[in-house]
Amino acid sequence: MDSEYPRLLEGETIESALARLRETGFKSRAVYFYVVNAEGRLVGVVPTRRMLLNPPQTPVSQIMERRVVAVPKSASLEDACELFILHRLLAIPVVDEEKRMMGVVEATVYSDEMFRLADSSEENWSEELFQLIGFTLSEIRRGSPFAIFQRRFVLLMSNLAGGLFCAVLAGLFRDLLNRAVALALFLPVVLALAESVSIQTLTLALDRQQLGVFSGRRILSFLQRELLTGILLGLTLGAMVGGFAAVWDQQPRLFPTIAAGITLGLVIATVIGTIVPLLFWLAQRDARPSAGPVVLALTDVTALTTYLLVGLLIMP
Questions:
Q1: Is the pTM for the entire model greater than 0.70?
Q2: Is 3.10.580.10 the CATH classification of the domain at 7-111?
Q3: Which helix (H) or strand (E) is 45 found in, with range?
Q4: Mean pLDDT split into 10-residue runs, the chain, 316 residues
């Protein structure tokens, strides 16, 4: 932060404030003029435009903005950057615990640092993203087309196996789907929701594993939290989709069927998203390159089975 900034006193006029600033001077740019009271506490801010366009005898307290966005002296770079982006400010004051003005940080001060952080984090972020879908970034950059084909083919086999198994399942429930065609129409919705929840849970589980907190009681605590989240998501989304289906197809039994199928599917998806990386961890294997395709395949099969079994129990 810059400790030499244009400071105004609450009780002075524009003329007296400018005269004082000419005598004392300041090194920072005059982006905003900050107003403090007798105790040095920040009470307002005056944009430079208002200082120039208002009559000299205008009291500073009359033209200042009393709602000031400020950061505490303990704020991190991330905290300050969030405020710059959120409020689109060119500078932000820094205050202590008693709201006393300590300095100013300008957006330009953070430019080089933000670019440095972006450059250093981009590589890690890209690597994690590729690993989640079954690759490492080095394999993509350095591998030959045939080597990449081999890697991707092996991983896609899990998705292919899951898809073929789902086709067989749908064939086993052909009579049910013929009687209630609407159940088949909503299969993509059920599978998409279950896949999304399983990948979300997997991402959180891998993050905990990377932080070294994926063990013992913490696993049970994480699973309990995810199960509750899955239940809440299932009940909400299931009620929405089931209600729409029942009204659209004019079959009241579609509501409990689809609602229960989606709820159970999302609960199972959270379990799969937690258990799969746990099994990799117990086997002392890196879960990132392979867990994603495995989780998606298992989620498709279990969510579809659950959905069709619920339909068999409820639908006539």
A1: no
A2: yes
A3: strand 42-47
A4: 85 92 79 90 91 91 91 84 79 90 80 57 50 52 65 71 84 83 86 89 76 62 86 92 89 90 92 85 69 84 91 84
